[in-house]
Design goal:
heterodimer, A: 253 residues, mainly alpha, 11 helices, B: 271 residues, two-stranded antiparallel sheet
Chain lengths: 253, 271
C-alpha cells in the first residue's frame, strides 16, 4: 500500500512536469530513478528508466501530435519490472500497452474535462471576470495529474498480472485505432491555425509550404527559413509597387 | 473613451515582465484539444491585462476573449511572443485608434514559425543530446545520469525564457515606434501570414499522417496516392477538417469524430 501511494505520488509529480517549466523530468530516464528510489532499488530503476528512455527517445510532442503516453508507461513499466524482478524485458513488454491505454485516458481528459474548463473560461470572459478565467487554468492544470496519480497508484496496487489481463482484454483494433487517430489528430490543430490566418491573397503560401515539404523533404525549420525569405521578398516587392500606385491597397497582390 | 487621451499613459514595467516570465513557467500545463494552450496563455498574460484594463470592464472582456483564442508556441521560447504581445496590448490601451485585430493576427502568424525554431532546437537537438548523455551514464547505474540530463536541458530552458521575455518586449515596442511612421503594420500582417501559412503547410506534410493499409496484391492505395502528390492524404484530411471548422462544426464533435473514425477504421481493417 505504501509503495502504491509512493508510485501514485511519483505520477502526480511527473504529470505536473508541464507546470514546472516543462522541464522534461517526466521522462522515463528520471521517473525510472524515482521509482527505483521508492521501491528500494535505485540501480535497477536507473537502468530500466534509461532503457525505456532510449526506446521512446523519438516520441515527442510536436505541433499537437501525441505519441503513446510514455509517462505512465515509464513509471508503471519500471515499477512492475522492479517489483516482479522481470527486468528490462518485462518493463518493455508492459510499458507500451500501458502507454497506449493511457493515451486513451489522456485524449478523453484533454477533450472533455479540459474542454469543459475552456468553455467555462469563455463564460467568465463574457462577464469580464479575470479571476474566473485565471482559475480555469489552475483547475484544468490540476485535473489531469490528480486523475493520473490515482489511476497509476491503483494500477500498481492491483499488480502487474491483473493490469496485463485487463490490457489483454482490450481488443487489438482499439489500440491500432487509437494510434491511427493520434496520428491524424494534429490535422485539427493545423486546420484551426489556418482558419485564423488564411485569406484569398495568402492561400497559395499554405500550399507552397506543403509542396516544398512534400517534394523536397525539407525540415520544418528549413521551410521557416525559406518562408522568411519569401515574406521579405514579397514585402519589398509590394513596397516598389506602392510607390507607383499610391494608396491602391486592396489590389496590390 | 474620450477621456482616454487625458489619462496618464499606462506603462508596462520590468516588474510586470518578470511576473509574466514567472507565470510562463506553467504556460503549457493546461493543454486541451480544443484550443490547446489558450488557458495558460490567458493566465500568464493576466497581470498585464489587469494593469491595462482593470477599470474598463468592456475592454477587459474583449482582451480576455482575445487571449482565449487558439494558442500554441514552444513553451521554452514562449516569452518572446508574450513580450511582443504585451507591447501591442500596451499600445492598444494607450491609443484608441489602435486596431485590436492586429494583436491576434501578429500573435497567430508568429506562433507557427517560432515553434518550428523552438521545437527543432529544444526537442530535436538539445533534448536528444541531453538524454543521450544522461542515458549512457544511467545505464551503468550512475545517479548522475538523470541529473546531468536535467541540468543540460533546463539551464538553456530557463535562460531562454528569461532573456526572451525582455527581448520580445523590446522587439514589440521598437516595431511599434516604426509603425507610426509608415503603414508597416499591414506589411508585418502579411509577412507574418506568409510565414505562418507556409510553416503550417509544411507541418501538414510532415506531422499529419493517415495510416491507411488498404492494399490489393500489387496495388497499395497509399503508394498510389503518394505517386500523384506526396502526402496527398494528410492534405485532403486537413482540408476536410478545415471545411468542417468553416461549417461551424463543434470542435468536440470533430475530435470525437476523429477518434471514432480511427477505431472504426481499425475495426474494419483499413488502418
Amino acid at each position: 500500500m505504501t509503495e502504491a501511494i509512493l508510485i501514485g505520488l511519483i505520477a502526480l509529480f511527473a504529470y505536473m512536469g508541464d507546470t514546472f517549466g516543462y522541464s522534461q523530468y517526466d521522462r522515463p530516464l528520471c521517473t525510472g530513478a524515482l521509482v527505483g528510489l521508492a521501491l528500494g532499488d535505485l540501480e535497477q530503476g536507473l537502468i530500466i528508466g534509461a532503457s525505456l528512455e532510449l526506446v521512446y527517445m523519438g516520441t515527442l510532442t510536436i505541433g499537437g501530435a501525441f505519441p503513446p503516453d510514455i509517462y505512465t508507461g515509464g513509471i508503471l513499466g519500471a515499477a512492475f519490472a522492479i517489483s516482479t524482478g522481470t527486468g528490462i524485458e518485462g518493463a518493455l513488454a508492459l510499458s507500451l500497452p500501458i502507454a497506449t491505454f493511457a493515451l486513451l485516458i489522456k485524449q478523453l481528459i484533454y477533450t472533455f474535462i479540459r474542454g469543459y474548463f475552456v468553455h467555462k473560461a469563455d463564460d467568465y470572459a463574457l462577464k469580464s471576470n479575470d479571476r474566473g478565467v485565471a482559475s480555469m487554468h489552475v483547475w484544468s492544470t490540476l485535473s489531469y495529474p490528480v486523475l493520473m496519480a490515482i489511476i497509476v497508484g491503483s494500477c500498481y496496487y492491483v499488480g502487474g498480472p491483473t493490469v496485463q489481463t485487463i490490457l489483454d482484454s482490450i481488443p487489438a483494433f482499439v489500440q491500432t485505432g487509437l494510434s491511427a487517430s493520434a496520428s491524424m489528430l494534429p490535422a485539427l490543430g493545423f486546420a484551426m491555425l489556418v482558419k485564423m490566418i488564411i485569406n484569398k491573397d495568402l492561400a497559395p503560401y499554405f500550399f507552397l509550404g506543403f509542396i516544398i515539404a512534400s517534394y523536397l523533404n525539407i525540415s520544418v525549420l528549413g521551410i521557416a527559413c525559406t518562408a522568411l525569405l519569401i515574406a521579405v521578398l514579397v514585402i519589398n516587392n509590394d513596397k516598389g509597387k506602392m510607390a507607383k500606385v499610391e494608396g491602391d491597397d486592396d489590389n496590390e497582390f | 473613451m474620450i477621456m482616454n487621451s487625458n489619462m496618464i499613459e499606462k506603462k508596462v514595467t520590468r516588474k510586470d515582465l518578470k511576473s509574466i516570465f514567472v507565470r510562463s513557467i506553467a504556460y503549457n500545463s493546461s493543454f486541451n484539444y480544443e484550443r490547446q494552450l489558450n488557458l495558460g496563455w490567458a493566465w500568464s498574460i493576466m497581470p498585464i491585462l489587469r494593469k491595462l484594463y482593470k477599470d474598463d470592464p468592456e475592454q477587459m472582456k474583449l482582451a480576455l476573449q482575445r487571449h482565449l483564442e487558439f494558442n500554441n508556441i514552444t513553451p521554452f521560447i514562449c516569452t518572446v511572443l508574450f513580450g511582443i504581445t504585451v507591447a501591442l496590448e500596451e499600445q492598444n490601451a494607450n491609443d484608441e485608434s489602435f486596431d485590436t485585430e492586429s494583436i491576434n493576427a501578429i500573435k497567430v502568424g508568429l506562433m507557427g514559425p517560432l515553434s518550428a525554431i523552438g521545437d527543432s532546437f529544444f526537442f530535436g537537438t538539445l533534448r536528444v543530446i541531453a538524454a543521450g548523455l544522461g542515458c549512457s551514464l544511467a545505464l551503468e547505474g550512475n545517479m548522475m545520469g538523470p541529473i546531468l540530463y536535467l541540468v543540460l536541458f533546463n539551464v538553456p530552458n530557463f535562460a531562454s525564457r528569461y532573456y526572451l521575455m525582455f527581448k520580445g518586449y523590446e522587439l514589440g515596442t521598437n516595431f511599434l515606434t516604426k509603425v507610426e511612421e509608415s503603414g508597416i503594420l499591414d506589411k508585418v500582417f502579411k509577412g507574418a501570414g506568409i510565414l505562418g501559412l507556409m510553416v503550417i503547410g509544411g507541418m501538414v506534410a510532415t506531422n499529419v499522417s493517415v495510416p491507411l493499409v488498404v492494399a490489393y496484391d500489387e496495388f497499395v492505395l497509399v503508394d498510389t496516392l503518394n505517386g500523384i502528390i506526396p502526402n496527398l492524404l494528410p492534405l485532403c484530411f486537413t482540408g476536410l477538417i478545415f471545411y468542417m471548422l468553416k461549417k461551424d462544426y463543434k470542435i468536440t464533435t470533430i475530435l470525437a469524430g476523429i477518434m471514432i473514425f480511427g477505431i472504426a477504421g481499425a475495426f474494419i481493417g483499413i488502418f
